[in-house]
């Protein structure tokens, strides 16, 4: 609002200035004196606190001189700045006696005297001062000439340029003021000063024809600044969970907070994936696709109808859930749907590929940004100084955390001293090395053991499957999942114990821990996938007439058999009712009764959804039991127990950063792997992340204690990202493989009827683009062109790598020269 | 009326100026105002912008409660003329701005230096470093460093006087056997660390900017 009248204001001001000079002439003595006093005490105020900034002084003086000329005008211009005035009055009070002394002195003299005092200031300032004096004289002359407009005339082009420069300088000062280590009062006064200066002179600058335009420009810049500031405020207000995370950060330090920041980042990505699948796949299909029950693939088969709505079935994501937009199989292979002619199969394909591409892009981009942020620090040269000057984490607000931090700093000091003293003692190093090797050996054993256990369990489950699961109880049916969850729960604890042997710095220890659990989870996941493929094959062999294994080999004979069977069935239908008559209308058969081929895509999607949901449940139950109930037990049974529970054996749990981070990463891997077959997966994941944000924030604040060895996690974020990238790569491998080299199921999903899923692209090219485009595309996708292109990319990567290396070396060289 | 009430108590243009002069957003300034006026006694709540909060009250803030440098922080940011380290709202904002997320590491290190400069003489000398180590190791007896360890840590070696300092590249990373802080940071070898040296060292630290922050 203030900026709006600025353009006008400057115009008005000049007018008022003119009036002011007239009035000032008439009752010269009191006015000038007062103006002079004001100008001077501003000056004095400034001098109290500030000696080092000479840059704005000359401008200020000029400004002051000008002010004297139009004391009356000042009244008006100041009236809209009450706080400024109040501040000035305060200052007035302060330097009153000072004023009394030199009151009779003329303004120019005092200004001169002050300037001479500051003889050590920049040389150009003197010039400015002289100019200011000259200008003042000019002003006096013009004042006696009593022509209001002529006051500004004496400003030459050169002076104008100078003035412009000064205004720019002031503007820069305003922009960088927050970087100055001054007190707020001083900053405020400097800001006021600079703003006034800019306001006054900006109007004067654009004298003549450009004035209006200039004023408009100034106004617009102000508005733009205001808008930017508002937008910044809005943006910070939009970041979700900021306060929650800050609170956690202040209680538990940055390492725990880094997990929550990572979780929030992940939530953002999943929101976008969800938006893509929901907006471009699920909603169009639900709105414009053929309704439920119109096609066999969109209908629950007769055999399952009875149980299709049972809760247990739905919970298992079969029944109605299976035959809905949630899964791949429900989608029809119609090229366009609805009045919009929405290309459903194409959209499905592009969303699948696009979400993978987007994820790759965003992860690598974030990694590059993080690398930029924390690049450069040479690790060892200021080791001790850093320990001393930067080891305290100012975010810590909890006395208990602070105690832990004190302890950890002390130990780190002591460790460093001892390490320095005993750096030449070999035995110690040998022992550490031995322990570290031993620890790695133990970790490997654990990994191998867990791998074997999963292998064993999977084998058993296959046997159960062969004999029919109906004969077995709950345990046998869920053995694989349970064993995997248990392994995921207990192995990390084991690794934790092992890592205490190694005696690393906690930040490095966290990485080892992360790496080990990463290997564990990865092994488990891939064993699980192999098991899944095997199981599908098994089921297929016994329940269905063909196997995935055969499909992998490209053996479609058995598919032919299924299709043949279906034709026979159709034929018998015709034969049984009406005598052969090709013109007869097709017989109405309920789609539920139509026999159908297997839909392995939906099966895979279902497995991933089930896995995600059970993983979510396990996490929540672990939090409730492992953290909450434990905390409640420790808290309340401590009154009537024979030892101190809070500090003794069970105690409260710490927040398990590594486990949680990895859980998040692997969960995301499953989402990436499965979302092509189950478009609902991102939605489920968004829900999961959302709830776990609240649940874990609550759990960490109410039942966890800060870690014993608090440490900062500034750079492990990129470590998380690297793992995420690795998982992304691993999880897109199978998805891409299936897209490129496995024929889709022939009677379900958007790609049925094609030999490969990606054929949807060539189909679109053929139908929706002019023929030349297809030709160009055909040439472009020729191996003869693609191979050289890949070669070119490899070469450019090599080149960039080489240049970055040489830059790094140059950097090191320069650093050496600096020291 | 807690929501609208706190917002309307800072004049609009002053709020804008505060945003211009600090690294804080509008919300953060309003929150700071709220927290600040909570520290005031009831009768002063209306003119929180001009009131001063005594140091003892400031130290009850949970954000500062556990900080070993709490007294120094109050001292450095206070503009009180009587030297009681009381804080006005503007001092409070200054403090939060320096400790905020978006403050530059330059200004952070400037204030860090002043916080660590216990005797306010403009350099970090041996005494300052000793006090700093004592602050960092906490109050507990068992966590204190022994005097020998302290000596080792901040040994005030003047290479010019002793002539023991290895010539050439002093910060030769692994090769340098002397752990002393002064050895590392005191570039001009005058026995103390001045602001420029301090900023040089600290600006290279990977996690200084991320740890030197306080959030309300």
From TrEMBL, chain A:
Extent of Acidic residues compositional bias: 148-158
Annotated protein name in UniProt: Transmembrane channel-like protein
Organism: Irena cyanogastra
TM stretches of this protein: 265-287, 308-331, 346-363, 434-458, 514-533, 719-740, 776-800
Domain TMC: 599-714
Keyword annotations: Membrane, Transmembrane, Transmembrane helix
One Gene Ontology cellular component: plasma membrane
Protein origin, superkingdom: Eukaryota
UniProt membrane topology term: Multi-pass membrane protein
Family stated for the protein in its record: Belongs to the TMC family.
Taxon lineage: Eukaryota, Metazoa, Chordata, Craniata, Vertebrata
GO molecular function: mechanosensitive monoatomic ion channel activity; voltage-gated calcium channel activity
PANTHER family for the chain: TRANSMEMBRANE CHANNEL-LIKE PROTEIN 1, TRANSMEMBRANE CHANNEL-RELATED
Record field: compositional bias (Basic residues): 24-41, 57-70, 124-142
UniProtKB/TrEMBL annotation, chain B:
Gene3D superfamilies reported in the protein's UniProt record: EF-hand
UniProt-annotated stretches for the region Disordered: 159-184
Limits of the EF-hand domain: 104-139, 180-208
PROSITE patterns xref list: EF_HAND_1, EF_HAND_2
Keyword field contains Signal: no
Annotated GO MF terms: calcium ion binding; magnesium ion binding
CDD domains (alphabetical): EFh (cd00051)
PANTHER family (alphabetical): CALCIUM AND INTEGRIN BINDING FAMILY MEMBER 1, CALCIUM AND INTEGRIN BINDING FAMILY MEMBER 2
Full protein name: CIB1 protein
A family per Pfam: EF-hand_7
Keywords: Calcium, Magnesium, Metal-binding, Repeat
Source organism (scientific name): Irena cyanogastra
């Amino acid at each position: 609002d203030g900026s709006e009248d600025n353009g006008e204001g400057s115009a008005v001001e000049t007018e008022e200035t003119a009036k002011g000079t007239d009035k000032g002439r008439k009752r010269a003595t009191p006015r000038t004196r007062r103006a002079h006093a004001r100008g001077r005490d501003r000056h004095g105020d400034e001098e109290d606190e500030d000696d080092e900034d000479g840059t704005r002084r000359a401008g200020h003086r000029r400004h002051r001189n000008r002010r004297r000329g139009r004391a009356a005008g000042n009244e008006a211009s100041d009236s809209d700045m009450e706080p400024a005035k109040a501040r000035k009055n305060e200052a007035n009070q302060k330097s009153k006696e000072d004023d009394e002394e030199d009151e009779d002195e003329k303004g120019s003299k005092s200004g001169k005297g002050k300037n001479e005092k500051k003889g050590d200031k920049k040389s150009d300032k003197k010039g400015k001062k002289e100019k200011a004096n000259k200008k003042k004289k000019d002003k006096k002359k013009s004042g006696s000439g009593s022509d209001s407009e002529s006051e500004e005339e004496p400003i030459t082009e050169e002076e104008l340029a100078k003035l412009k420069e000064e205004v720019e300088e002031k503007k820069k000062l305003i922009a960088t003021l927050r970087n100055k280590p001054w007190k707020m009062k001083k900053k405020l006064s400097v800001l006021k000063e600079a703003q006034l200066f800019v306001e006054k002179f900006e109007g004067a600058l654009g004298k003549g024809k450009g004035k209006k335009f200039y004023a408009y420009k100034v106004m617009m810049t102000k508005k733009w600044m205001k808008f930017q500031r508002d937008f910044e405020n809005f943006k910070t207000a939009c970041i979700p969970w900021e306060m929650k995370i800050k609170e956690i950060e202040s209680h538990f330090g940055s390492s725990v907070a880094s997990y929550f920041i990572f979780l929030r980042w992940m939530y953002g990505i999943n929101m976008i994936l969800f938006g893509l699948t929901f907006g471009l796949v699920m909603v169009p299909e639900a709105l414009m696709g053929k309704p439920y029950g119109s096609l066999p693939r969109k209908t629950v088969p007769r055999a399952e109808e009875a149980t299709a709505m049972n809760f247990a079935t739905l919970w298992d994501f079969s029944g109605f859930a299976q035959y809905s937009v949630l899964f791949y199989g429900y989608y029809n292979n119609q090229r366009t749907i609805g009045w919009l002619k929405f290309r459903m199969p194409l959209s499905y394909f592009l969303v699948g590929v696009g979400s993978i591409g987007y994820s790759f892009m965003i992860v690598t981009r974030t990694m590059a940004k993080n690398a930029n942020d924390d690049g450069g620090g040479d690790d060892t040269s200021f080791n001790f100084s850093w320990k001393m000057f930067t080891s305290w984490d100012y975010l810590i607000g909890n006395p208990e955390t602070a105690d832990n931090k004190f302890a950890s700093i002390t130990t780190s000091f002591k460790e460093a001293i001892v390490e320095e003293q005993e750096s030449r003692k070999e035995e110690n190093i040998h022992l550490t090395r031995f322990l570290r090797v031993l620890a790695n050996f133990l970790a490997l054993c654990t990994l191998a053991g867990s791998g074997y256990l999963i292998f064993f369990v999977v084998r058993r489950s296959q046997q159960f499957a062969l004999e029919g699961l109906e004969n077995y109880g709950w345990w046998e049916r869920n053995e694989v999942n349970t064993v995997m969850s248990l392994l995921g729960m207990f192995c990390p604890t084991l690794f934790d114990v092992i890592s205490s042997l190694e005696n690393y710095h906690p930040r490095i220890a966290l990485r080892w821990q992360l790496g080990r659990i990463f290997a564990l989870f990865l092994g488990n996941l891939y064993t699980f996938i192999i098991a899944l493929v095997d199981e599908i094959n098994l089921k297929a062999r016994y329940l269905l007439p063909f196997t995935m294994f055969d499909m992998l080999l490209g053996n479609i004979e058995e598919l032919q058999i299924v299709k043949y069977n279906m034709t026979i069935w159709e034929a018998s239908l015709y034969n049984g009712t009406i005598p052969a008559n090709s013109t007869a209308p097709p017989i109405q058969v309920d789609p539920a009764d139509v026999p159908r081929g297997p839909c392995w895509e939906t099966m895979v999607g279902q497995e991933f959804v089930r896995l995600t949901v059970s993983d979510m449940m396990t996490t929540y139950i672990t939090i409730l039991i492992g953290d909450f109930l434990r905390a409640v037990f420790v808290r309340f049974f401590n009154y009537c127990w024979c030892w101190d529970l809070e500090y003794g054996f069970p105690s409260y749990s710490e927040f398990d950063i590594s486990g949680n981070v990895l859980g998040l990463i692997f969960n995301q891997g499953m989402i990436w792997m499965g979302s092509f077959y189950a478009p609902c997966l991102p939605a489920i994941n968004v829900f999961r992340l959302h709830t776990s944000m609240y649940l874990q924030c609550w759990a960490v604040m109410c039942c966890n204690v800060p870690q014993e060895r608090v440490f900062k996690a500034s750079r492990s974020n990129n470590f998380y990202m690297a793992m995420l990238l690795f998982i992304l790569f691993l999880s897109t491998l199978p998805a891409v493989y299936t897209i490129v080299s496995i024929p889709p199921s022939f009677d379900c999903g958007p790609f049925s009827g094609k030999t490969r899923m990606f054929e949807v692209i060539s189909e679109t090219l053929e139908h929706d683009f002019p023929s030349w485009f297809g030709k160009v595309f055909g040439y472009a996708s020729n191996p003869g062109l693609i191979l050289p292109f890949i070669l070119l990319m490899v070469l450019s990567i090599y080149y960039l790598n080489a240049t970055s290396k040489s830059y790094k070396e140059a950097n090191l060289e320069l650093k050496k020269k600096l020291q | 009326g807690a929501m609208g009430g706190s917002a309307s108590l800072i004049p609009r243009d002053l709020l804008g100026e505060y945003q211009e002069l600090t690294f804080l957003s509008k919300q953060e300034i309003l929150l700071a105002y709220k927290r600040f006026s909570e520290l005031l006694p009831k009768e002063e709540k209306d003119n929180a912008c001009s009131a001063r909060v005594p140091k003892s009250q400031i130290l009850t803030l949970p954000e500062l409660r556990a900080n070993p440098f709490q007294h120094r922080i109050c001292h450095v940011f206070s503009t009180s003329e009587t030297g009681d380290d009381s804080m006005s709202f503007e001092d409070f904002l200054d403090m939060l701005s320096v400790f905020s997320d978006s403050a530059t590491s330059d200004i952070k290190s400037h204030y860090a230096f002043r916080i660590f400069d216990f005797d306010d003489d403009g350099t970090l000398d041996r005494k300052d470093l000793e006090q700093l180590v004592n602050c960092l190791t906490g109050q507990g007896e068992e966590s204190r460093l022994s005097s020998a360890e302290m000596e080792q840590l901040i040994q005030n070696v003047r290479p010019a006087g002793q002539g023991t300092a290895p010539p050439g590249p002093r910060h030769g990373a692994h090769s340098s056997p002397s752990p002393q802080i002064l050895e590392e940071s005191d570039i001009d070898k005058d026995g103390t660390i001045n602001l420029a040296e301090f900023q040089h060292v600290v600006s290279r630290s990977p996690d200084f900017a991320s740890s030197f922050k306080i959030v309300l």
